[in-house]
Amino acid sequence: MRIFSGIRASGDKTLGNYSGGYRQYRATQEQGEALFCIVDLHSITTAYEPEGLREATLAGTAMLFATGIDPERSIVFAQSHVPAHAEAAWLLSAATSFGELRRMTQFKDKSTEQEFVSAGLFTYPVLMAGDILLHQTDMVPIGDDQRQHLELTRDIAERFNGRYGETFTVPQGVYPEEGARIRNLQEPERLMSTSAGNPQGVVRIVDEPDVIRKKFKTAVTDSEREVRHDPGAKPGISNLVEIMSVATGGSLGAIEARYGDSGYGQFKEDVGEAVVKLFEPIQERYRELRADDNGLRRLLADGAEKARESSAPTLAAMYERMGFVRL
Ligand code: TYM
Predict the structure, then answer these.
(1) Considering only CA atoms, which residue is closest to atom 20 of ligand 1?
(2) Model confidence pLDDT, tens digit, residues 171-214
(3) Angle between the N-to-C axes of helices 235-248 and 252-259, in degrees from 0 to 180, rounded to the nearest 10
(4) Residues 49 and 174 in one domain
(5) Is 158 part of any domain?
(6) Do 229 and 261 fall into the same domain?
(7) Does 135 lie in the same domain as 273?
(8) What is the pLDDT of residues 222-279, one digit of tens each?
(9) Is there a single domain that holds both residue 34 and residue 159?
(10) Is 225 within the bounds of a domain?
(11) Does the beta carbon of 34 sit less than 6 angstroms from any atom of ligand 1?
């Protein structure tokens, strides 16, 4: 079983990234051969600072290990260290239509937030497809916001296999049962994300405990007082119930049974405390790992070598089947 997932370069990751990303990476790495990629090439598709990118790449690497990725077992690497990824994106763009890319809702949302809409923002899903397909991936652990990109990846793989001959494994997305779409605590109709929405409703993994407590205390709920999971009617409180489940491992039913109609005040406080407990050990490991630049660079160099080996046969097969002269 091959497992692959990517995460944008940043140390500023959220509770949403923890729920749909890190938590699933740690669990799936037990099930086979896993690769986790800091997708630094994706980071240049929206406005950014070069110095910030360097910092974000090292910070993102530290966060993967801090949340439980084992370097003995899994491959962690930066996308730009394995040129096959950029090459695969170009080759796969021949098997991707303009119409498909235009339908991507993330592009539609993000392009309205940018002053300068780069061509890279539009073609980004092709690079992501290359990330996944180059490693003959069976399983892709992701959150719900990446579902459309994964479906596109499957379509591209099938089209390429049909046109040029069987080349790629067609991957399956793996989504968490609870917490596949964590929402902004202030605007529960929006995804929790650092790039948009009220920052007071965005919980970062590296937030100070008191900042986390305050964000939960002031979370938006509704006027009833019943703690119940019903995302259609009660998006704010349902989000908190899911977060409680993510932080403690308790089922939605057990959480509803425990809090029921005892009111929102205590519940919000307890969810905040559960998240503080969840993130404290991660923050401690993160600070240690992040302090050692050379150590992180060594881990990345080791990962890059393994990822080059893992991707080389597939890239060679792509060139071969597409008709390029091989020397
Ligand atoms: P990125 O960096 O935005 O997010 C990393 C992971 O976190 C998940 N996630 C969430 N899950 C639940 N609730 C949320 N509010 C939330 N916010 C983010 C994302 O679904 C993702 O799994 N395009 C990808 C990176 C990527 C990739 C790949 C992923 C590039 N190549 C290949 C998988 C395979 C992205 O921008 O993720």
Answers:
(1) 143
(2) 999 999 999 999 999 999 999 998 889 999 999 999 999 999 99
(3) 110
(4) yes
(5) yes
(6) yes
(7) no
(8) 888 899 999 999 999 999 999 999 999 999 999 999 998 888 999 999 999 999 999 9
(9) yes
(10) yes
(11) no
